[in-house]
Amino acid sequence: MASMSHRERVLTAINRKQPDRVPVDLGSTRATTMIIASYENLKNYLGLNHETKLMWQYQNSVVPDDTVLERLDIDTRLLMLGDFKKKPSKRIDANSFIDVWGTTWKKTPEGHYINAEGPFQKGDPRIEILETFDWPDPNDPGLYEGLKVRAESLRKSTDCAIVLDLPNGIMLQGWFVRGFVEWLTDLYMNKEFACRLMDIMTDIWTRIVEKALEIVGKNIDIVAMADDLGMQEGTFVSPQVYREMLKPRHKRMVDAIKSRSDAKIFLHSCGSVYAIIEDLIEIGIDVLNPVQVAAKNMDPEKLKKEFGDRLAFWGAIDTQRILPFGTPEEVRAEVRRVIDCLGKGGGYVLASVHNLQREVPPENIIAMFDEARSYGRYR
Fold this sequence. Notes:
By secondary structure, the chain is α/β, with parallel strands linked by helices. It has one domain (6-84, 124-375): TIM Barrel (Alpha-Beta Barrel), CATH 3.20.20. 41% of the residues lie in helices and 16% in strands. It has helices at residues 6-14, 36-46, 66-71, 127-131, 147-157, 170-178, 180-189, 191-216, 239-258, 277-283, 300-307, 322-325, 328-342, 362-375; strands spanning 53-56, 61-63, 76-80, 90-93, 96-98, 104-107, 113-117, 161-168, 222-226, 264-268, 287-289, 312-317, 348-352. A seven-stranded parallel sheet has the order 3-8-9-10-11-12-13. The chain has a four-stranded antiparallel sheet with strand order 4-5-6-7, covered by helices on one side. The radius of gyration is 20 Å and the shape is globular. The mean pLDDT is 97.
């Protein structure tokens, strides 16, 4: 088969057709990159000394430099929105800040941040407090500053697939503003409050996305949504509650993208989401990430067999055991196993299951991408 451009390779794969080789991703979304410590180790291993660019403060994650992406022959590139300017995050002290949604974040010893308290976490869930809250403005010019120029520049300067990485979805954002336990309780016990909160967040999200898509036009290939719905053993809420409460709003979000773009829709959702994959396909999701293979019912062979004719997969290289604790040869063997399962006939983009942490040796990162290039060629 003739060699493809990076962009052709990715688009062929996610259209569930066979490219020249399995495409690979690093750094095209906030969930497929590296944290600072891991990145610095990789830079040292490769003998690179460029400045490290922060991608997302919450996760202490980075935007990989082009020198790294080219060394690893990465097929994708990131396009991010800007930051809110009218109502920016406020630093409390060296280790904590309040974001634009009113959530307080505190730094952990490992360097990333956790949501310590949301603006609606205390007190009874009353709709009145939602109506008077100072919500983020989806028309904030900071979000879109330079977006058109960056999109056009990426299209002209690279033949890679360009991924527009979007803000967090309603499940995650509800968790952050309400608190984890409180939010899950609301979805069962305080449904009127939960629905109003989700509708407000959906309104803001869709207005941001509509404006962003008008600006970038056809200079993107993939739109990446993120809304964690799973944990190790199953979904955070029952499939029935998902279908009643979240699915209609997720469909509205997907429809907002499809009405303004032909780009493929990528959903990042950690954990075991097997029970609702049919629902995700039904609302129009094209690509599932991260394919957390260590979670229940997320075996690659099973997923490919049941959903591979309707859904592409992105991720699947285990970050719970293989990448941090395996040898380079064990990493290579896992890459071959996953390609054999998910890569048959296309439909697969190889990446790690979520961001590479400090425990992942640079030798294993190199082994993952080198093996993908050599073994992933279709014959």
